[in-house]
Design goal:
The structure is a single chain. This protein is α/β, with parallel strands linked by helices. Helix content is 25%, strand content 17%. The protein has a domain at 29-209: 3-Layer(aba) Sandwich (Rossmann fold). It contains six helices and eight strands. An eight-stranded mixed beta sheet has the order 1-8-7-2-3-5-4-6, with helices on both faces. Helix 2 (79-94) runs parallel beside helix 3. The longest helix is centred in the N-terminal third of the chain and has 16 residues, at 79-94.
Length: 271
Amino acid sequence: MICQQCQHEFEILPANVSGGHRLLCGDSTSGDDLAYLMSGEIADIVFSSPPYNAGDNSLGGNKNMTEQKYANDSDNKTQEEYLSFLIAVIKNVQKHSQYQFINIQQLSGNKIAVIDMLYALREHFCDVAIWHKGGGRPAMCESVMNSRFEYIFIFATQLNPTRQIKTNTFRDISNVFELNPSGKNDYSDVHAAVFPVAFAEHFISMATRQGSCVLEPFCGSGTTIIAAQKLGRRCMAIEIDPLYADICIQRWEEFTGKKAIRIERKATNED
């Protein structure tokens, strides 16, 4: 299939094979793209880590990457632009999901926008969890504390939710998840911000049941797809960068030993 935006050939994981995973090379801020991907289905949860607006730090010290971390989307927005971006995506995915788990680390380039996001979505705020990463990486600048944690903000589509996550039943799960992310990143030459599969597995298994649908609007290198595959969940994913979309396909094929099948997107009046 040829992407309408970038003319890059890519493949899609269709909903009728491969455990129900589906990957669209598209834009998660686009209502049309989300509607096409979901085809009327409502996901139990969104699990995603949007770009952090890391600016000059976005390469994570990766010398092999000469431009920004996200080739087809700027990771160096103003605070106002980044806030608008976050709100647009979350409002968009709320039309197709019950709960939204959004992983963000507060940085200089997003710290105001993150606070403003929480205020803007206060009527949908459900809970917050912490990913405790152990020692953490040293801060790049002087007089800046090393960061040892990241947020997972949990929103609900319904207004004024309680802290209860009603898509699954569980007890005795802490709101602090401890996992040291240090280890080999097999995709570091193209993606500097791959989170561990176990990180996605923890929250997906907590908040969903077998066979449930998980929506991932920033698929990156496909970690959420792999976590869903391992847990017997179905992942509906969007990735704007065709290079990352190809990596998602390759990674899933290597993990499962299966071949992804492409399906053609039907043309619309807007295409």
